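User: Structure tokens for this complex, please. No commentary.
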Amino acid sequence: MTYGDNATALRVGLAELLHHHRIQQRLGGPGLHTVPVTTTAAERADLGQQISRYRHAALAWCLQAVSAANPRINLDRTTTRSRGPAEELRYRLTKAVEASTAGLPSLEELTSTEDLAIVESWREVARAAALGEHDFGAGVGYGRLSDAECRVVMKDAAEVTRALVVLDRRYAKVPGWESLKDPTRLGRAAEIGAMFAGYETPDYRVDQRGWRPTPRFVDVPGLPGLVGVLQAQHNLFIGLDRFPNAYSLRVVLDSQRVVSYEAAQNAMSNAPSLAQEWARRTQTYTALVRATRNLGGLVGGGGEAAGQGALAATRIRRLAAPEEAQADQTLLWGQLAQLFTAVDERVAAIISHGADRRLYFQAVSLPRVTDQSNDLVKPVRQRFVPITSAVDGGLLRLVADQLRPRRLPAPAVSPRTGRSREELRAAIDHRPGSPTSPDGPQLGV
Amino acid sequence: MLLAHAVALAEARSYVAALADLTRTFDASVEYERVLLQLDWMHDGEVPGLETSGLTTDRDILFAVAESAISELVTHGVDALKVELVLDMLEVARSQDAP
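Assistant:
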């Protein structure tokens, strides 16, 4: 579950709730003679308190999101005039969370399905908020996000806050309901915050960030065919968590050259675009293999990564001929492409780190001055020196220009989560009977 | 590592690398690179740098010099079995270098 997944679940749940009016009746209360009363006042009070807890979870998510996007430490002595839009929203959210006495829902409440549809929608909102809290400590935080990504998080939090304020008014008459503190100011801060965050171009790549389970070593006997290659390649990626010494790095580079070449040959008929990309990768790794022949460095390990790389190369060479291979391997080729990207990124980071920290050395020919020889021409000696821009022999440039995966430009709208953002915005701004409302009365021309 | 050992190893590495650069097939290039890696592994990564510029482009000459330099490593205390295995890998690489 990424930030995009959790925030989408949150928005979808809130958009669903915003479509409901006459809340008492939806909780089984009186008011409609066509619908029987199914709950007592005490039961509705319990439901009101339970929904308040779910709302508290969503409110806490908003506060964490705004803090992640704009972490100014102390806002206690600031005033409305001295606070910016983001800080004002954060301040109002902090006050609202502090004033709420509902508390967070228990684990049982979050995981048990509710009978009433409206309560179930609230449960899903709270569940998404609870899951979304993991994202802020795993890549969705200030310092890790670009300014454009921070604006997306800020805008999401502001829109969710607006939705909570709108719902707060609708639920005011529910027994046991606890209203928000200063809902008008909170709503205004959220509205201004959403507008402020929407001024400049957003970067929806933040949707891909967030908590993910830690990948683990696949320690099972060799799997057959292309799956076995994926297994070894995955394990290689895990093995590269440890910094490899120069020799292990060279073995890994050599293995990747072979794997890319064989993969390109195999995918030529089924996936020509991937084959073309992998042919380019083969050239990159061939150049890297040549550039690292004189690479030295004894610090680090990497034996496991080197072994898995060699295993991947061996397995892919033993694959059946392309015409004999199973036709429907598109999914596996796609996964191999993802692993290639991940490995490229890791290898690029390793080489850059090794150069920056002077863990890798390059043998270069250096003229030297000596007082121990009377010859007119002094012999040129080779020395292993740290890799710097002056003596890197093109290695660092190769890594920066060809190996490091290119960051694609930010999409104008997020294809996956854009719809939920639009729907929540439409649900918040929806007013029954307004001219823009599809189900309201239309103005005559 | 004494100077004579370092010179023989540098020569072997340089000529094998030159062979890897001049191959006609991808497989042969991979095999020559493996010979290079094997030589480095035998010396625990403590190897002199190689230089391929200025060498001949005649593969037969390059192969003969590389083979000779690798064989010479035995006289510098490198395990004879390991050297024989490297020579065998060198032969395999050459056999793959057919268009």
